Amino acid sequence: MALPGKGTASPPRGRRPFYRDLSLQVLAGMALGTATGYFFPKFGINLQPLGDAFIRIIQMLIGPIIFCTVCSGIAGVNDFKKVGRVAIKALVYFEVVTSLALVLGLVVVNVLKPGVGMNVDLHGMHSAAVDSYVAKAHHVVTTSEFLLNVIPHTAISAFAGGDVLQVLFFSVLFAFGLAAIGERAQPALNLIESVSGALFWIIGLTMKIAPLAAFGAIAFTVSKFGFGTLMSLGKLLLEFYLTCALFILLILWPIAKVNGFSLLRLMRYIGAELLLVIGTSSSETVFPQLIDKLERLGCEKSVVGLVLPTAYTFNHDGTCLYFAAAAVFLAQATNTPMSWHDQLVLLAVLLLTSKGAAGVSGAAIAVLAATLAASNTIPVESIALILGIHKALSSGFVFTNIVGNTVATIVVANWEKALDRVALRRELKSGFKPAPVASARLNQTHSGHAGN
């Protein structure tokens, strides 16, 4: 099977007007949303449906896109051993990098001490605000229950529930089935490729309203929480954003360097997606676009289809930074003593509970509540302190998650020798230039069939 970018010469495209650049449009939407929320808060708070509608459209398409990508990738390659090899390499990478994130998060928050001096009295704090998150924490399951939950009750329930890991599990098994029956699977593969082209056409159409979604989401956030809340906990925000920047600079940048690509150029290539997750605080809004861009960067479809969905479940780099920073901040703010031994115990608990974030609505706060309850050191009620700025914090950790997942997919593809370096260098050097999505993927499909 030919790799994307091999044997298919893209027709030259002229330089588009700057105002048609999606990154610029999303940035303009965010700026306008901030101004609307600040000057017209009563109007801005009613704009939440704009962002929510966009997220729902993307969520609607994620399951079918994973299914189509995994099936066409694995069945086309027809290599069962490769699937297990890729999965093991990806999981080892995820565990090492998320562990480094937790350690970095603990170190930075201990050095900068953003919560010291706040002297918060929990007796005067209403715990009702955190009750819903504590309730969700009970749904963060044990390791054995989590592994069992990977298997859906029915094939339909995996798609209906929107559980990425369950969809991936069924898709891999179905792809193996297609590969096992050989030539008889070709009509099904042709149908899957056609469905995939239609789904990505819908994504291309939906992305046209991304600036409007970012406008609505930012306007709602500023209207509801205002700048006063951000200023009162500004030290934590600055500390956390600095931690995310250090993680990208000290950990992801060397990983990219060792694997032969520029992290800065990669971030520019996915710039529209990074801005969109800042505006919506949702990583799901960019999942389909990342699949398409990673294939255009030269990553083999089967690797992208396995690694990226798994990364969305297990590779929460930014979220781990958030857990470490928020937990120790709450200890500092409430004058809860925490020795390094206590923090190492916290780190061990986080290594387990962070994996339980998958499939839990409002997962970050819920898992943080579960972690505090499990460590039995920091009062769970103290979470109320950060609820007002959680949206601003989530923009930072979702941004970092997306960068980390994109790097992880390219790295695993490189380790697996499933990376077209010519395409990678060409795309990163020229920057992303949109092409008709359906026709682009159709060309990839034809070249893939020709190479089988």
Automatic annotation (TrEMBL):
Q: Name any GO cellular component annotation.
A: plasma membrane
Which topology term describes how it sits in the membrane? Multi-pass membrane protein
Tell me the protein's name: Aerobic C4-dicarboxylate transport protein
* An MF annotation (GO) of this entry: succinate transmembrane transporter activity
Asked if Iron is a keyword of the record, the answer is: no
Question: Where found in the cell?
Answer: Cell membrane
Q: Which PANTHER family match?
A: AEROBIC C4-DICARBOXYLATE TRANSPORT PROTEIN, PROTON/GLUTAMATE-ASPARTATE SYMPORTER
Q: What does this protein do?
A: Responsible for the transport of dicarboxylates such as succinate, fumarate, and malate from the periplasm across the membrane.
Provide the species name.
Paraburkholderia tropica
Keyword presence, Cell membrane: yes
Q: Which UniProt keywords apply?
A: Cell membrane, Membrane, Symport, Transmembrane, Transmembrane helix, Transport
Please name the Pfam families in this protein's record. SDF (PF00375)
